[in-house]
Amino acid sequence: YLAFMHMQVDIEEMVVLKGLMIWSFLLPSCSMLITFSKDITLTFSIACALLPLLLTKWRIIKNIPYAIGVIIRGIRYAQEAINNFGVHAVLEREWVRLNVPNVLRLFWILRVANFLVFSVAKHLHELDSFSLFTLLNPVILYSLFKSTLTYGCDTVIALLGMTSIVYYVSHYIGVFFQMLLLTGEDDDRNMGTVSAILFFVLAEQSGLTVLENEKRYIRLCRNFCLLFTAMLYFVHNMVNTVLMSLSASRNPSVYRHARALGVCSILLLLPLSLLYALWSVFTLSTWLLAVSAFSVQVIIKTLVTVLLYT
């Protein structure tokens, strides 16, 4: 009814069109109750679909001038905003207005969830079982984890969605350390933003989306190792600022000193654990040397920070 009112037709014409629209949808189903040949049934269905199709086409043609006007006004608005504020500011504002990170994050979660459901169903069918406990086998769990990661970055849009997930996780890791160090949030140095940009740049440099599944998984794990070391750098910058502030102010609060020194111990243990795990599994390569150099640098910087603090 509202659609016909929007078309601005007379009441009598509206009633006639409304009746025709109803019958155009009902008649194809009703015709199945009567035995006709296949050609007659197909022709009848096409004829009934002509009225909705013609009304839709007519409405589209009628609204073409309005659509062109909207596009022209949008282009003028964008040109004016770019001239006044610059391209970067306009893109940033539209990025926030459209809530792009949340859209990409939701897209990636739904896509991966759909893939997981089908993968789990496939494994259950192969095992001839309906119990999810049969999937607790480490080999099956690793296979699901591996296939999910490789599927989650096989296209550029999926990679952007994974980047949004990386931003979300990294952001709250940074928030955790800020709460641990009792410091305020600095938007200019947000760990989530830096980590997401680094992850996407590494993925594009390595051509992650065009690699085969096995090579993509290996490259993705390597990128995560590099990202992990970058996050350690970020945490070190936070704890370095706090320790220097505590040392200069002679703050008597043992609680704050213990928290900062506890984070320093984490910055020493995590790189050492990473180095031990990588050198135990992988052979010598340029990537391994790069990760090792970054990890050793974090350890040295942390030790220097503690020495300056004492």
Automatic annotation (TrEMBL):
Keyword annotations of the record: Membrane, Transmembrane, Transmembrane helix
Residue span(s) of domain TRC8-like N-terminal: 10-310
Membrane topology qualifier: Multi-pass membrane protein
InterPro entries listed in its UniProt record: TRC8_N_dom
Record has Translocase as a keyword: no
Residue stretches spanning the membrane: 15-34, 157-181, 193-211, 223-246, 258-279, 286-309
Subcellular location(s) per record: Membrane
One term under GO cellular component: membrane
Protein name per UniProt: Protein TRC8 homolog
Species this protein is from: Hirondellea gigas
